[in-house]
């Protein structure tokens, strides 16, 4: 049983006696500076998620947003004060904040890595690129990188449990800036004051609106977390040089809670590990088997399961997905976004359309990170017809289970009610995805390795695949993190789009 302390967090007037030690940023800094050992199962899951990130980065490496970010990073070579950091897929070294930027975009572009959902939602694997980049630049050993990542996952997941952002249309990367700064602090063995200042700066600079995930969704959806990681590195650098931060960033009279979240009368409750308590939050998170928004993972598996019972999808009159409020309003018809039914919509928009996703999965019995989003697939007349027969409704029980604190009860799925033209009604439901820890086929090391081998097939040479996997296996005893970069075959990179010149 974990020993977690619940901290009340609310707005404080400037005139109040509110010492720094009571600020949420200071409490997070104390957790980050706590020299507690990393449990074996936590360390193992950290390695799994490093593999997971490399998998999806390989699959996205020549997509346009990833190519743009890579070109930008390559225009910023390493400074003379460190080794530089490696940009995914290519040789050479770049300045660490720009390497983190490029690698963060590669990780997020396909919406295909790990997730944690609670009061807020998140992709805690977004912490990996900034920490690896700093580790490579400064020659940090593998054991300290693992410690830092355990902290970054812990802080992001604890903030996600305690503070809802999306209700107030604030993007979830606001939690990421703080967690990455805390994780870097742990990794580098920084003191509490330095970590405190870095957290405050990162939180201040990464609080952005959710318009990046609304309506016609652009490539900024992938850039936003990468930007938070880049900002976190810069914040730590400034804090290490003695620069302070806005304080108290969450609780201040003109701070985040007072004006961007629930307001000065509200108290949030944020769980954090007690002193000496190991950081195990990464074990609460879960990765994706399918390249789509997490709340569509279980509906994809449900559609595949229902396919044989349904038969000819042309005989379907309507499909209603009964699900949680969050699924309904973010990726369902409760969003009010007509773009979610537009065959010409961007890939990012289709990724956030559960009606589209359920239709394709029901017809194909499968989901693929490229084929399922191809323009020809989205324009198929029978798919468009079926797609527009699908709607979502909120079911209070699914909403309750979504927010449940009991892992055995927590659910991110739906109940599908399919009505045929004959009047026959077919129903089924699935609470969690097959790959979820409580699902039919939970992901463990073999599944992570298989995901990497599948997504990097034809992109990375076989010898390079095995070298990378061996580097991950040996990370805990490695003198540095240089082996965590993966080189992509030159003939693959040659197929990347040509990017116009910019400023750099």
From TrEMBL:
Residues 23-268 form the MmgE/PrpD N-terminal domain. GO terms for molecular function: 2-methylcitrate dehydratase activity; aconitate hydratase activity. The keyword Lipoprotein does not apply. Keywords: Lyase, Tricarboxylic acid cycle. Pathway: Carbohydrate metabolism; tricarboxylic acid cycle; isocitrate from oxaloacetate: step 1/2; Organic acid metabolism; propanoate degradation. SUPFAM superfamilies: 2-methylcitrate dehydratase PrpD. It catalyses: (2S,3S)-2-methylcitrate = 2-methyl-cis-aconitate + H2O; citrate = D-threo-isocitrate. GO terms for biological process: propionate metabolic process; tricarboxylic acid cycle. Its EC number is 4.2.1.3, 4.2.1.79. Residues 290-473 form the MmgE/PrpD C-terminal domain. PANTHER family: 2-METHYLCITRATE DEHYDRATASE, 2-METHYLCITRATE DEHYDRATASE-RELATED. Belongs to the PrpD family. Involved in the catabolism of short chain fatty acids (SCFA) via the tricarboxylic acid (TCA)(acetyl degradation route) and via the 2-methylcitrate cycle I (propionate degradation route). Catalyzes the dehydration of 2-methylcitrate (2-MC) to yield the cis isomer of 2-methyl-aconitate. Could also catalyze the dehydration of citrate and the hydration of cis-aconitate. Monomer. This is 2-methylcitrate dehydratase. It comes from Mycolicibacterium brumae. The lineage of its organism: Bacteria, Bacillati, Actinomycetota, Actinomycetes, Mycobacteriales.
């Amino acid at each position: 049983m974990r020993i977690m302390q619940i901290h009340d967090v609310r707005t404080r007037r400037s005139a109040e006696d509110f010492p720094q030690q009571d600020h949420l940023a200071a409490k997070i800094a104390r957790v980050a500076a706590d020299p507690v050992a990393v449990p074996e199962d936590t360390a193992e899951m950290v390695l799994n998620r490093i593999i997971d990130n490399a998998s999806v980065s390989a699959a996205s490496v020549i997509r346009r947003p990833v190519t743009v970010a890579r070109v930008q990073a390559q225009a910023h070579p390493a400074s003379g004060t460190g080794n530089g950091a490696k940009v995914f897929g290519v040789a050479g070294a770049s300045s660490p904040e720009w390497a983190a930027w490029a690698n963060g975009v590669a990780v997020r572009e396909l919406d295909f890595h790990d997730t944690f959902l609670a009061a807020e939602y998140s992709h805690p694997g977004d912490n990996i690129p900034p920490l690896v980049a700093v580790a490579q630049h400064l020659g940090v050993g593998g054991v300290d990188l693992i410690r830092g990542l355990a902290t970054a996952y812990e802080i992001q997941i604890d903030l996600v449990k305690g503070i809802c952002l999306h209700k107030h249309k604030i993007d979830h990367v606001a939690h990421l800036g703080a967690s990455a700064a805390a994780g870097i602090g742990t990794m580098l063995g920084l003191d509490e004051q330095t970590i405190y200042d870095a957290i405050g700066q990162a939180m201040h600079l990464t609080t952005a609106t959710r318009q990046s995930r609304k309506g016609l969704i652009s490539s900024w959806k992938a850039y936003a977390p990468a930007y938070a990681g880049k900002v976190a590195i810069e914040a730590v650098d400034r804090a290490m040089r003695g620069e302070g931060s806005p304080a108290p960033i969450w609780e201040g009279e003109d701070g985040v809670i007072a004006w961007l979240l629930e307001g000065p009368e509200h108290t949030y409750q944020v769980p954090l590990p007690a002193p000496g308590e190991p950081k195990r939050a990464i074990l609460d998170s879960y990765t994706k088997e399918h390249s789509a928004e997490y709340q569509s993972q279980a509906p994809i598996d449900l559609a595949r399961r229902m396919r044989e019972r349904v038969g000819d999808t042309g005989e379907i009159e309507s499909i209603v997905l009964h699900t949680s409020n969050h699924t309904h309003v973010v990726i369902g018809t409760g969003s009010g976004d007509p773009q979610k039914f537009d065959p010409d919509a961007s890939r990012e928009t289709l990724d956030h359309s559960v009606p589209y996703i359920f239709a394709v999965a029901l017809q194909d019995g499968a989901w693929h990170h490229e084929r399922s989003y191809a323009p020809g697939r989205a324009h198929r007349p029978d798919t468009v017809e079926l797609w527009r027969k699908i709607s979502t409704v909120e079911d209070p029980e699914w909403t309750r289970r979504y927010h449940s604190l009991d892992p055995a009860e927590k659910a991110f799925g739906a109940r599908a009610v399919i009505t045929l033209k004959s009047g026959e009604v077919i129903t089924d439901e699935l609470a969690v995805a097959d790959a979820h820890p409580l699902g039919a086929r939970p992901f463990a090391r073999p599944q992570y390795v298989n995901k990497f081998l599948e997504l990097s097939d034809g992109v990375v040479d076989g010898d390079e695949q095995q070298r990378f996997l061996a580097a991950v296996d040996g990370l805990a005893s490695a003198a540095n993190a240089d082996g965590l970069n993966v080189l992509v075959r030159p003939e693959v990179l040659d197929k990347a789009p040509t990017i116009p010149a910019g400023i750099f």
